[in-house]
Amino acid sequence: LRLLPWQRYLQAEKAEVSTLERKRNILCCLITRILKVEKQLHIDNLVFRVIDACQKGELGPGLQFLSFCCHSVDVLSCVLHLLNQGYLRRQEERPHVLEY
């Protein structure tokens, strides 16, 4: 029986997954924080506010994180995740408006 050395690409893949998970967690926290303050917000405005906060490196009052590249697809994916989890909901008469 001969053991092969650990493949480096497997370590790199794990690191990428960890980075993506952290990014998703930060985006989800940012989305909920914004909607807690605003109570309801048009989805387009929410996306722009999240992207702006990511570029400035601001999570909220007094909290900072390193700025990172964030795209509308990333934010919308997190919005869908939060909708499926039940943290957010859409207004019945205006489905483009999200509520916390």
Automatic annotation (TrEMBL):
Record-linked SUPFAM superfamilies: Winged helix' DNA-binding domain
PANTHER family: CULLIN 7-RELATED, CULLIN AND GALACTOSE-BINDING DOMAIN-CONTAINING
Gene source species: Oceanites oceanicus
UniProt cross-references to SMART domains, sorted A to Z: Cullin_Nedd8
Domain Cullin neddylation, first and last residues per copy: 19-96
Domain of life: Eukaryota
Descriptive protein name: CUL9 protein
Underlying gene: Cul9_0
Signal peptide as annotated in the record: none
